[in-house]
Amino acid sequence: MVNEVVMRAHGLVKDFGGGGLVRRPPFRAVEDVSFEIPRGQTLALVGESGSGKSTTARMAAHLVEPTAGTIELEGEDVTRLRGPALARFRSRVQVVFQDPFSSLNPRHSVEQIVTAPLRYQRRRVPGGARAFTGDLMERVGLDPDHSRRLPRQFSGGQAQRIGIARALAVDPSVVICDEAVSALDVSVQAQVIELLGRLQAEQGLSYLFIAHDLAVVRQIAQHVAVMSEGRIVEAGTRDQVFDDPRQEYTRTLLAAVPRIPAEWDAARRAGAVDPGRGAPGAHEDPGTHPAGGAHTPAPARAEETA
Ligand SMILES: Nc1ncnc2c1ncn2[C@@H]1O[C@H](COP(=O)(O)OP(=O)(O)OP(=O)(O)O)[C@@H](O)[C@H]1O
């Protein structure tokens, strides 16, 4: 169906704290946030630090409960779920977090990590754990022979690919990427973005993509919502928001963006960026080399373009 909405949030509010002996008022982190994610597309939530992006994402992922408002997934109200209904929700909405190393169990092999969501839901691993893991690793550009390795034996970009493989294991309706590429070196970042784009094209994945880096958002999102002080202040298609922003706040945010190199943007628009290789001139992420050996952890945190 054209333009089918996979997730819809309406009037989300989140208050933190408040009360106590001196009866402090709660802090409102998110105020009246509504959005829709069309199936097979990406909605990016952008904004400065503290604008409420992650809190909104965490409500969408059912990791924090909204103070008010509703969330629908494929037409079903999923705002307040408990027990088995919540477990079913977890197989439909997956999260890829910012720091791949802290979100992967350091004592578990890739095979244990990517099959964990299925085991948690007491679901059979189709075709057996080894083959299932190998297939997922290939889909995200990792060597299937490395399925017994631990997270620390991978680079930062490779570890994030494991996080993506884990998300894909349950065949989710929505993948929430919460600053999923922010911790990566900028060239590896480009390759992970290419991977996310390729997976979307191949499998019709729908993403809620949280980022403070507008250059990244421009490469991945079809739709953009700009947040400031807990509210969505501007929303539209990527081209509307980037090329014809209505709000002064958005213009200021865009003015602060380091321009992505013109040749990258031209190559991306022309579809000339090879998903396996990333942007022109990028260093190669060892994850794209099936034969790439073990690496000491290199979760490069530099190069964030805040
Ligand atoms: N658990 C919490 N308790 C109290 N305040 C919180 C909590 N989580 C977030 N906040 C506050 O809510 C506001 C929004 O935070 P949030 O993390 O959603 O913003 P953000 O746009 O994602 O920023 P960042 O990119 O820095 O994570 C901030 O002022 C933050 O301090």
Automatic annotation (TrEMBL):
Bias (Low complexity) ranges: 288-300
UniProt keyword annotations, A-Z: ATP-binding, Nucleotide-binding, Transport
Chain intervals for the UniProt region annotation (Disordered): 269-306
GO biological process, any: peptide transport
One Gene Ontology molecular-function label: ATP hydrolysis activity
Superkingdom of the organism of origin: Bacteria
A family per Pfam: oligo_HPY
SUPFAM superfamilies cross-referenced by the UniProt entry: P-loop containing nucleoside triphosphate hydrolases
InterPro entries: AAA+_ATPase, ABC_transp_ATP-bind, ABC_transporter-like_ATP-bd, ABC_transporter-like_CS, Oligopep_ABC_C, P-loop_NTPase
PANTHER family reported in the protein's UniProt record: D,D-DIPEPTIDE TRANSPORT ATP-BINDING PROTEIN DDPF-RELATED, TRANSPORT ATP-BINDING PROTEIN
Family from the record: Belongs to the ABC transporter superfamily.
Protein name: Peptide/nickel transport system ATP-binding protein
Species this chain originates from: Auraticoccus monumenti
